[in-house]
Amino acid sequence: MARINLKDAAVFAQHSYKPQNFTSPRIIDSLDKDDVQAHLTENGLLLLPGSNSVLDYLHYNLRVFQVGNKRYRLASSDTEHGASGTVWHQGFLVYSRKIFDWLGQRRPEIIIGHSLGAAAVQILSKSYNVPGIGFAAPRPKKGPGRVQFDDKCLSICRVDDTVCGLPPNFNHMGDARFLEPKANNWGLDHSMKNYRAILEENNGPDAVP
After folding, report:
1. Is 147 inside any structural domain?
2. Residue 165 sits in a domain of what CATH number?
3. Higher pLDDT residue, 159 or 59?
4. Checking CA distances to 68, which of 34, 60, 94, 155 falls within 20 to 30 Å?
């Protein structure tokens, strides 16, 4: 099974906002349509950027709310069943489907994302039954129970990141690891720069399946 160091995954997630920074592995295809962004590398790494600012998220500038000219809300009533029957937040599911359709017959080996991208990581990790790592992950799944293929998905969250508690009445897919910073900056530490910093100061396993 593919494995990746969490600190390396965080570097990939941060660089996904500026794909020109990638020299290895080489990006072979990118999606930028209907406010959906994704990058696929030559070794099957699927990178999903989101929003580096919690203020963008809270002000509804996060792209998921304007997918294909349709606006989505962070409401507990806005849900839809996926192909497996799992109930997801509708906006996150629509976003993930656009990435799924873009990939076509291609199958990622590992999926890494941040913020909105981390919401899509949780859905697509289940869709492909492949490892997924999401940083600053919102909660896309309706219902608290475990579902099939959620054992390969990990969400890395800061306890001082408001986005990790949104939407209300939803849950993370798979396992969510909440990291406590030495200095709490409640509600504002959402950027990948802050997630890379907390990985440096926290001890614990640094690789996941």
Report:
1. yes
2. 3.40.50.1820
3. 159
4. 155
